[in-house]
Write a structure and sequence with these properties.
The protein contains seven helices and eleven strands. The protein is α/β, with parallel strands linked by helices and 221 residues long. The chain has a single domain, classed as P-loop containing nucleotide triphosphate hydrolases (Rossmann fold), CATH 3.40.50. Helix 6 runs parallel beside helix 7.
Length: 221
């Protein structure tokens, strides 16, 4: 089995964290010691006198992960803006060396690791004297990606552009997962159009607030 997969999306608020949590839970329920990792999170929640990495907390809860929350995310920023801007305002910019080391620690504990991205595929993670984009993290970890999308109006353009950008930048794309899928006529057509235009497998369709994901664990081997 491969060591992991990177979960990105067609944009912000598409449901990466929700889908990632279902994926980790699915793998663990199937007997695979799956884990979770995220390099940078912005928009941390202030609760009980401290900032909490909400994405990691959610995945940990849904998938019943034994890891401590601080092991799941390398960089946590308070401001709900792009990581590069949050880092610029708050300090503590992302270093690829730390990302590699923290991911390696996650790999040492888990058989398979789902790595969640920030925003969409063209997300600047650091932009000062050093420039790091999401694709640099994907390449540093030597992972392929799955793309979370909706099948709603505008999804054809967003999904196809995301697939083609990744391919143009030397990133392998395993397939697309549709989130908040309602199986309307438009959604069925958009799903088919994305599959055909982007020449990409559709791995799963997840209804809004679904308790599980119907996906073949062996598809990631």
């Amino acid at each position: 089995m491969n060591s992991g997969i990177f979960v990105t999306a067609t944009g912000t608020d598409v449901g990466k964290t929700f889908v990632t949590a279902l994926l980790v839970k699915k793998w663990r329920d199937a007997g695979v010691n799956a884990g979770y990792y995220k390099a940078a999170l912005s928009g941390a929640e202030f609760r009980d006198g401290k900032y909490v990495a909400g994405d990691a907390e959610y995945v940990k809860m849904i998938a019943q992960l034994p890891d401590r929350e601080e092991e799941l995310v390398s960089y946590v920023y308070q401001e709900a803006v792009s990581p590069h801007l949050a880092a610029r305002k708050e300090g503590n910019p992302v270093e690829l060396s730390k990302v590699r080391a923290d991911y390696a620690r996650a790999r040492a504990k888990h058989e398979f690791v789902f790595v969640e991205g920030s925003g969409g595929i063209v997300c600047p993670i650091r932009y000062d004297k050093q420039k790091i984009f999401l694709e640099d993290i994907i390449k540093a970890l030597e992972l392929e990606i799955v793309i979370v999308s909706t099948a709603l109006l505008g999804s054809i353009n967003a999904a196809v552009l995301t697939v083609e950008y990744a391919r143009a930048h030397g990133i392998g794309v395993r397939g697309v997962i549709f989130n908040r899928y309602g199986d309307s006529e438009m959604e069925r057509d958009n799903r088919q159009m994305i599959a055909e235009i982007a020449r990409i497998p559709i791995l799963a369709c997840v209804a809004e607030n679904a308790p599980k994901i119907d996906i073949d664990v062996k598809a990631f081997q």
